[in-house]
Amino acid sequence: DTAFEQATLAETLFANLNPNTSNWLPKPPGTVSFYSNDGSSLAGLVVERVTNMSFDLYVKEKIMQPLGVDISKVGVRLADFSNREELVKHNAYAFNEPDFNAWTQGVPQLNVTKLSENFPTWLNIPFFGFSVYPSGLFRMSARSLSKFLQMFMNNGSNLISPKSIAEMKIVVGGGLIPYYDPSGIANTSVVAPPSFGLSWTWQTLKDGRRYIGHSGTLPGARHWMIVNEKNTVGVIILSNGDSNVPSDRSQEYYKLLENIHLALFE
């Protein structure tokens, strides 16, 4: 959190999107589609410049508070929460020693520990923040997030214009721009490549139906919120499981979340 305070959104972006690094446009604009945290952060920077407010404060005061969310229990920094007992713990599962080693060697700064000496065992991932802005982790309860999703489903609820909601749903390039997959993950994944709207994505699940929403994963936690194509039902799952380490078990975990979603939509 201390390091977090030392970098502005602009400083972080301009350092990351340096023309001399591979982070900057690996493909020419308009030739591929891919979700970009940097792209979303650039949009956040526009908000900061127009409103003269930090992006996280803008989201709290101009979006979450008008929705009736207690903004004292919403935040991007660990320091935003006076009582960390209210935060859900981050966990992962290790079937064997190589699973555990994948965590300790891959993210040594998290100090992952085993909850028991015998495998299989749960792993505890201590609460963590980020050293740069934006944090990428806007902590809130499922109830608070549901108010945001209801606003989206209600065409903006006089908070966001219906035109903006419509633009969020429009697939970039009419679905004709190929998905950018340099590592070939899409060819081996159980997840079909998504179609991208404005930060939101369309996904076809195994029932053959299309859903729009947003998901994210960090060590020890995953969220997934989607709305059916008819815009009649929305489902949010916040999990303290994990799908970060590439493995068959991560794919099984994804399938489990998908089954829960589809059961709730039924």
Automatic annotation (TrEMBL):
Residues 25-257 form the Beta-lactamase-related domain. Gene3D superfamilies: DD-peptidase/beta-lactamase superfamily. Coiled coil: none annotated. PANTHER family: BETA-LACTAMASE-RELATED DOMAIN-CONTAINING PROTEIN, D-ALANYL-D-ALANINE-CARBOXYPEPTIDASE/ENDOPEPTIDASE AMPH. This is Beta-lactamase-related domain-containing protein.
